[in-house]
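Hi R.,

Here's the chain you asked about this morning:
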Amino acid sequence: MLNWLFDTKKNKDVSLDRIGIDIHSHLIPGIDDGVETVEEAVAMASKMQALGFSHIVTTPHIMWDCYKNTPEIILSGLQNVRQGAAEAGLTIKIDAAAEYFIDEHFNELLVTGQQFLTLPGNRLLVELPYSTPLMNTAETLFSIIKNGYQPVLAHPERYTYFYSDPSVYKKLADQGCELQVNILSLTGYYGENITKMAEWLLRNNLITFLGTDAHKIQHLDMIQKSNKNNWISKYPFQNEKLINI
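And here is the predicted structure, written out as tokens:
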């Protein structure tokens, strides 16, 4: 068995060097519920480099009721983080996309052909409401694909309204949506039920990417010290395939 992630036998810090690229985090200061300062962002980038990442594509929220972020706002903040990281002597590559909440604003951007900030391979990281399912999820995902983007659904294990019929996850994957699980879900951070669903999704080969979804350095500390679920080392995450895109 490959014990490169959560190794209970050796009880050592987690190493994510084989993942290589993190595609879900919140490192642009002061624009969502992530870090507040450049100094915090640099500290997190340093920790991610120490964990083995060589590349971060950070993904601030775009959720029009809460975080009215635009590509200009995000990319301006990215330059500040890059400058701080360079001054700190970090070698990790830092880019930015966004985590798009599927709401009316998102659908308007899609219909009118506006600019999106994408992950490598023209991928759009999207999220759903936590409490109530959207009525038109399948139609929206089809529209994303129709417009030339590859949808990546963030943290599907956290949408508890799908638990009564887990076959929904396979239907989403069969429709062409890639699924991204949070490492924090596997540590137990969000609770036992979410951990169990993350494990179920992995066992059923429905997860394509792993992401930290780190909002603060304490999240990375928890990931670093987590030493359970070593069975996850069997799963072939595809993050590393994005590095050279």
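One quick note: The first strand starts at residue 21 and ends at 22.

Cheers,
M.
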